[in-house]
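Thanks for the sequence, V.! I ran Amino acid ABC transporter permease right away. Repeating your input here for the record:
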Amino acid sequence: MAKVFDPQLVLRDIPKLLAYLPETLLITIISLVIGLILGLGIAMVKIHRVPVLDRLLAIFVSFTRGTPILVQLYVTYYGIPIVLQYANYYWGTHLNVNNVPGLLFVLVTFSLNEAAYNSENIRGALQAVDAGEIEAATALGETQWQILRRIIVPEAFVIALPTLGNALISLMKNTSLAFVASVVEMTARGQIIAGNDYRYFEVYLALAIIYWGLTIITEQLIRLVEKRITRFQQQQAPQPAKKVNFNLLKHPASVVKRGETLD
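Predicted structure:
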């Protein structure tokens, strides 16, 4: 009877899958950065209630949060070529509809998904910033951009960091869906390996171990950043004033050293 489960194959497949880790990290980092920038913009629009744009972005956030990311990936995969065809027809462009790289579909989908989820987290963090500090900065004559850069964004980042960290972990695990757009990352490579020897269990177990390890490392890095930021804030916080020892005021002679006399 052949081996039903072979641990040696798991150990063999892990290095082969790790060779495609850069693609997974590339998708994660680029989508995270774009998602944070767009999420900050959406949060600012919703906070200031910009007419029309506020309602349009609310619909976008509701749609994105209410649909599976796999469905969003399919919509992007089949939708972008249709948009390019309309652009060629109405604007006279000559965009190659059949030569769109699969990585573009993935980055667009994941970036917009992150923007929708992060916008709510960032909006809550921005509104949680102490209004007294903003008023004090305004009284000192700082501009809105200076207040945003020096006070609001740093404090909001500390507040939103745990939630953003969870979003980062979810994004990293969601990159396993990139194979839908023909992007070969770790999961797609695992399917290719399993298709060669039909040892699917060992391959997917190896993938699970890798993703589990990445999640643990990411969690530890987030905790380390939180500790560093907390320690920095404690160092920057004003030191409490020293309490006056009223006993010295009542008995001043008690502080005179032995052998000395008071003038």
